[in-house]
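Structure in, sequence out. Go:
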């Protein structure tokens, strides 16, 4: 994802802080993606839709909502912006065409993303990052203040755009509840339920049948959605994604993501981010749960109210990780290796999870509760930490990093050390 757009350069020239934050992000994103791998799509936003919304399952949902939901995606986006800028700067320093280097990378990332989306998993984010990344090049020379102002404006615009959703859900619910409600109003209400509330049983049954079936069954289900995943992400969260990438550029230029700030400054932003973000998210989570995870409550709380708070939480997370990264040891070394192979680890996570959950593999799709899914998360985390460092001891890049680099450069790159 985001973090995947990293410059493939010798380890001695790399910025270790970026790699460590990238490693945490590629592992942390699985805390939310695991729901999309193992359950019907609606469960991602709403635990009432599937997988359990009481007891330990409710706790699992709330902990992830408060601490991880959207924050790891945001870290990816920050790092995408920072890494894209680093690639551009290095290309310019070497006398290369920065535009050619950047757009070759984005073009091939789009190809990877679309293949990943339609062949393996509906939740791909690579295609979205590639499309937004093509816009990002325009802002490479902007100063820190200008980048932050534009990012703030985009987040405000995204919030205003999302404000229409709970209004539409509430108005439709009123229309559909009238004795003389039209068939269109009732159908629209069910559409909102399928997306943010509790889907109709036939919707759940359709997804279960597709992903418990053969590879071609799953393929047909993804093909049925057509361009919806691509366009939905682009228009639904595109401004927010671009804002985070711009903030990543600004924080890279300021030295924050390079690990150059004094510890006191990181601690201050950690306190600001978490002391505002955690109580705000906890209050939103309490509201949504108290409202029984209705479609209105989810659209208002999870999608709208969380949006303006999320950037502070992301900065808080980045500050915490960078502070911990200064305590170098075996774990930070392993995380840095995982970050250097983030593109490979992201795609390998999909391969492992779809093989484990889908019917053409182990067939666990829809059988584990929300809390039980995290046993799979821990197992994959262990694999990522175990295999990344030994691989990089023998090879320059992860397998998919090497392939992406070779395609973007138009020639096979040296792989072995």
């Amino acid at each position: 994802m985001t973090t995947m757009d990293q410059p493939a350069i010798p380890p001695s020239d790399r910025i270790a802080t970026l790699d460590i934050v990238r490693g945490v992000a590629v592992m942390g994103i699985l805390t939310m993606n695991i729901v999309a791998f193992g359950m019907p799509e609606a469960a991602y936003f709403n635990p009432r839709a599937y997988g359990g919304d009481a007891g330990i399952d409710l706790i699992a949902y709330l902990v992830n909502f408060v601490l991880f939901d959207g924050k790891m995606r945001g870290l990816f986006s920050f790092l995408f912006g920072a890494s894209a800028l680093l690639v551009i700067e290095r290309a310019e320093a070497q006398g290369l065409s920065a535009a050619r280097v950047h757009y070759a990378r984005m073009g091939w990332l789009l190809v990877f993303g679309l293949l990943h989306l339609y062949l393996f998993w509906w939740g791909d984010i690579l295609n979205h990052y590639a499309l937004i990344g093509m816009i990002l090049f325009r802002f490479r020379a902007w100063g820190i203040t200008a980048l932050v102002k534009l990012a703030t404006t985009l987040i405000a615009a995204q919030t205003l755009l999302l404000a229409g959703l709970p209004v539409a859900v509430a108005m439709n619910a009123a229309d559909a509840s009238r004795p003389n409600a039209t068939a269109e109003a009732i159908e629209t209400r069910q559409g909102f339920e399928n997306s943010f509330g509790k889907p109709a049983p036939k919707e759940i049954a359709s997804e279960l049948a597709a992903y418990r079936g053969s590879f071609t069954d799953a393929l047909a289900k993804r093909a049925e959605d057509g361009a919806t995943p691509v366009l939905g992400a682009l228009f639904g969260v595109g401004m927010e994604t671009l804002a985070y990438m711009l903030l990543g550029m600004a924080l890279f230029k300021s030295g924050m993501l390079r690990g150059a700030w004094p510890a006191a400054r990181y601690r201050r932003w950690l306190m600001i981010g978490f002391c505002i973000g955690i109580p705000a998210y906890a209050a939103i989570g309490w509201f949504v749960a108290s409202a029984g995870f209705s479609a209105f409550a989810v659209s208002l709380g999870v999608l709208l109210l969380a949006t303006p708070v999320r950037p502070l939480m992301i900065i808080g997370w980045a500050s915490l990780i960078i502070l911990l990264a200064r305590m170098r040891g075996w774990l930070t070394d392993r995380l840095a290796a995982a970050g250097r192979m983030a593109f490979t680890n992201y795609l390998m996570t999909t391969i492992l999870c779809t093989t484990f959950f889908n019917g053409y593999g182990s067939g666990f799709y829809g059988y584990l509760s929300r809390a039980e899914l995290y046993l799979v998360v821990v197992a994959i985390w262990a694999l990522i930490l175990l295999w990344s460092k030994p691989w990089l001891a023998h090879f320059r890049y992860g397998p998919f990093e090497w392939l992406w680099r070779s395609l973007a450069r138009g020639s096979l790159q040296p792989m072995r050390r």
